[in-house]
Design a protein that fits this description.
Elements (H helix, E strand, L loop, with lengths): L1 H11 L5 E3 L2 H5 L8 H6 L5 E5 L5 H9 L4 E6 L2 H13 L5 E5 L14 E7 L17 H10 E11 L2 H13 L3 E6 L12 H4 L3 H8 L5 E6 L1
Parallel strand pairs: 1-4, 2-3, 2-5, 3-4, 5-6
Antiparallel strand pairs: 6-8, 7-8
Helix pairs in contact: 1-5
């Protein structure tokens, strides 16, 4: 297993669709910041992020469905990220890329108004109250997203954690953000929601769904 991980880490350093940066490098100026479309995607399409993308199931799935948008999966774990990056190389999907870095540094990776949407798919809910600052919908992170999200940009959250879902709704209400859609049981009844919400599933969503966990979803903007 350790050998396989090392091989994958070596692989992604050669992948043209993977960018790797630590804070030291980012603080000196990230060359693609503000130039994702012109320097990499070579088009002017809206940019969509998947934060904590893991194996990149949503990044890959969304890129397949929406060629009119560009997608970037963000994660620190290169072993998992390799799976999605290899897949889009093999399938020659031109509107997807991956960024390997800590989400704490995400505001250094994009220019103001460079991103149109953010997907947060099955993040660690950090259930302990003492770890609330690590939740990806905590204000510490939302303030970072606001720096590069368009004024009318949208944030999506999918989670199996009802407490994390409730926490995020509280954050939205307390800060008077606009809650556009929400449900604590996405698959309860047929709905008119976009099929990308139910037809694309992450590795963890598959596990939680098979165990009978209800899947929560919400969408909001600042």
């Amino acid at each position: 297993m350790a050998k396989k991980k090392l091989e994958r880490f070596a692989d992604i350093k050669t992948f043209p669709n993977v960018f790797e940066f630590n804070y030291s490098e980012l603080s000196k100026g990230f060359g693609v910041n503000g130039k994702w479309n012109s320097a990499f995607f070579k088009n002017g399409h809206p940019i969509v992020l998947e934060l904590g993308c893991g194996k990149g199931e949503y990044t890959v799935g969304l890129a397949r469905r929406s060629p009119e948008k560009n997608f970037i999966g963000v994660d620190l774990k290169g072993n998992r990220l390799w799976v999605g990056a290899k897949q889009i190389l093999d399938e020659q999907i031109a509107n997807a890329a991956f960024l390997r870095t800590r989400i704490d540094f995400i505001d250094h990776c994009f220019a103001p108004s460079e991103v149109s949407e953010i997907w947060i798919t099955f993040p660690d809910p950090q259930p302990q109250k003492t770890r609330a600052r690590k939740r990806l919908t905590n204000m510490r992170f939302l303030d970072r997203y606001r720096k590069f999200l368009k004024p009318d940009g949208i944030i999506h959250l999918k989670t199996d954690s009802k407490s994390f879902y409730d926490y995020t709704i509280e954050v939205i209400e307390e800060n008077k953000y606009t809650l556009l859609d929400h449900t604590d049981d996405l698959y309860a009844v047929p709905s008119s929601r976009p099929l990308e919400l139910t037809e694309i599933k992450t590795y963890y969503e598959g596990i939680f769904s098979s165990k009978g966990f209800k899947i929560c979803y919400l969408k909001f903007r600042f």
